[in-house]
Specification:
This protein is of the alpha+beta class. The protein has helices at 21-28, 38-51, 68-77, 82-88, 92-96, 106-114, 125-133, 175-181; strands at residues 2-4, 58-59, 65-66, 119-122, 138-142, 147-154, 159-164, 168-174, 182-188.
């Protein structure tokens, strides 16, 4: 049996980080680490997976449709928002990292951008498993620094099902490997 959030298997709500404006802009200017939006992309995927629909539509006057992960990334890295983020977490690490790479900032940013609630917590495989049982989606960081979104669990295979904004939809990781491969920071939708 597979359990998870409502839209765990709906590919229309899957977001890729390599097709958004910010990534394309950085790449076009030769920025070496242009894959910079995995966390906001994974958090946006968490929202669409919990909703069970892809209804993030941000239209501009000219008809261009901004992707929600671009909007979220822009909001988080806007210097005007720095004072609000400093109230949430202010330490030396925050000064050398882009704001969209700091998981504690997502509850504030997601609410301000989309009026969506999420929480930040620390936890491991058992916490993620329990959250999926309660139909939440969880954006997490792999130990190599890349963010993905846990959307379901396959009891028969004993595997988490996750969406990776760079490498694919409905990928899997064995329960026994989770705590070795993932950090304990969780953004829960």
């Amino acid at each position: 049996m597979i359990f998870g959030c409502k839209g765990w298997n709906d590919k229309t709500g899957y977001f890729r980080q390599d097709n958004n404006f910010i990534e394309a802009f950085l790449k076009s200017y030769g920025v070496e680490q242009f894959y910079a939006t995995c966390f906001p992309t994974s958090v946006c995927r968490a929202v669409s997976a919990v909703r069970g629909e892809d209804n993030f539509k941000i239209k501009s006057a000219g008809g261009w449709s901004m992707q929600p992960e671009d909007y979220l990334t822009g909001f988080m890295n806007d210097p005007e928002n720095r004072p609000a983020f400093d109230k949430i977490r202010k330490d030396p690490d925050c000064l050398v990292m882009p704001e969209n790479q700091i998981p504690q900032y997502y509850p504030y940013a997601l609410w301000e951008c989309f009026k969506e609630k999420c929480t930040f917590e620390w936890g491991g495989s058992m916490e993620v498993l329990n959250l999926l049982k309660n139909e939440h989606a969880v954006a997490v960081l792999q130990k190599r620094g890349h963010a993905v979104c846990m959307v379901a669990f396959d009891e028969s295979a004993n595997e988490f099902i996750y969406d990776d904004p760079l490498y694919g939809f409905n990928l899997r990781v064995d329960l026994s490997m989770y705590d070795m491969e993932y950090e304990s920071a969780m953004v829960i939708v």
